[in-house]
Amino acid sequence: MSAGAGRMELLSPAGNPQALERAVAAGADAVYLGCSAFSARAGAGNFNGEELREAVRFCHLHGVKVHVAVNTLVKDREIPALFSLLTLIRDAGADAVLVQDLGVLSLMRRCFPELTVHASTQMSLHNLTGVRWAARQGMVRVVLARECSLGEVKKAAEAGIEVEVFGHGAQCVCVSGQCLFSSLVGGRSGNRGRCAQPCRLNYGLEGEEGAWLSPRDVCLRDDLPALREAGVASVKLEGRLKSPAYVATVTESYRRGLDTMAPASKEEKEELLQAFQRGGFMRGFIMGCEDAGVIAPERVNHGGLPLGRVLRGDGRFAALGVDRPLHDGDQLRILTRRGDYETAYAGPEVPAAGTATLRLRPEDGGHVRPGDRVVRLSDSALNARALALPVPRIPLTLSLTALPGQPLMLLAFRDGLPVGQAAGEVVQAAQKRCVTAEEMIRQLTKTGDTPFTVRPEDCRVETEHAFVPLAALNALRRACLAAIGEKNDGVSPVPAVPEPEVGSAPRPLPDMAVSADPAALAALPEGTRGIWFPEDWREEALEAGLAGLPAGCWLQLPTVCEEATLGMIHRLAEAHRGKLGGVVLGSVGQLGLDWPVPVAAGSGIPVMNRHALAFLLAAGCRFVVASEELNREELRTLMAGNPPVMVPAWGFSQLMLLHVCPARTKLGLDRGHARCSLCDRGDPASLRGKTLTDRRGAAFPLRRLRLPEGCLVRVMNSLPLDIREEAAREGWPRLLRPDGMAEARGGPVTAGHWKRGVE
Q1: What predicted TM-score, i.e. pTM, was given to this entire model?
Q2: C-alpha–C-alpha distance, residues 633 and 647, integer Å
């Protein structure tokens, strides 16, 4: 979609059938949902097979598309179940499937070519090169990484396929598809839809507690004209875990915005804040938010809207002075000196500037004091209105033929296209009085409780001296309307799963060690190949580092960088092609460039099954790094036949990759991220040497990657991984990853997922 062209799609979340119905009622152009398996929101209600078929039928009746998320990483043993799900999605008639796993992409292209594929944001596509790569893979849309700037979005939109961006709701702090925090620390994989949200916890940073990893919710309601001008094809609303009332409220607001391109009114903005927000809204990375403008360290749950204050209380009741109308059933939070006290108001409606009486629980009433602030978490009147929005009726045009000697025939049209028909008995000639066209039209317009509406002027009747019983007309109308969008309950056979074409390594792979220090790579023991992962990716520093790099070393690319930065790295790789052993790709979209040296797939390209492995080897990768989320038995399956796979075996694992700097956030800085020099000049307030410490005392080191467009921050595991002995006993090649950090000799280590695996 080219910049400034076309009508943007409004894409709403549907965590369950009720939310889906509310999205349609509020004006969504499309919905996205998950099924009972392989969805990145396993905690949502999701849809079983029959519910999916009914959802597609209902949405298509109303001209709404259905996108199904199959955007988790899939293990080899799960491939048959995946095929059953894809068969169901195809048979149901869904409009698109969102994918993350390269193995799923490969299998869909081979066995389900009729399914339209969208690249999930979990695929970490973030620049023009990545979007062009996706287009070459047959994908028709890319859900861009949330960290993209508006300028990068505009470039990506020139690739010739659709780009989709998140417009409203919760923001993952980690680059999508790159988070291992929940997995390695809690055993629940965000890449498999089971994130435990460690980002929403408090951590200590230089002695100050705060939710340093918890972003505010995004609201781009007033930025829709800029998104349209940038060439965005679809605006996605987050919220598959949210209530149906939330879905309706937010969808209705964005529908109004897309239809008018006018800013939201004060009342509308307050309704969005009331529906849900963390620390107020931000405009996201796409509109230039940075650091302290992104993170809300004070509170991780819904902030609500200010309602008023406690005027007085006796431990059993409290008098509230309210600045907004208060309704029976509103959910409230009182911010007391002893913490939050949440309750519900029961009583008559109280107008703004009035006084309400609130019953207190005996165990909490003594903590409520005059002056305590009160916020409203949920507005029962707003929710009731959202839940009462009518689903739009579907306008039809009907054409009836009622000629003696011919079968009674009724055709239904929508937007000029035939959508249903029904035939009746042969029409008899009238013996006394014929039925007039006007009488027939009156019967045809009686659509009752169906989702359709027919105006008299939209009925065409061809008749002459015919006798047609009104009961026959009613039956014909019912049959014709019932045929519109009729469900296809047929189940086609599940295709056989093809064997992945994975060959053995052409030669034994050496051990490989990653370091940010070229001198450390020069000192590696014989037989170990070095991978340089520089901290500073600015051109001058990168040029100097490459000049001093030992011959044969590989260059590990950053997972995320802007298009201009990727072009600069490519030029330097060309200039040093005689020295480099190759480049280790940081994300799959980097396959979109023709590299002048050999390439390999690094840990930023998750590989959990043999089909993903085969995809990357066929794309020319010399070796592939296995996912750290696989256990020993799953690794054994992946590596059957000795393909060129590296197993992460030692070093500090990266848990998160951030576009925000906790050190800058702590300083309250919300501008100047790209120009920041705190670390360069050794400022005590900089990121260097800093850690985030959790409630159990585990310290997670923070490390930067300095790109020309600003720093990325790596949150590292608190303990180094060490499975060297186990991997050696298995006879596997291994990837050592010290990342320039001192070896913890004799100290505690972790075996990662070697034994336990992930859900």
Answers
A1: 0.94
A2: 13
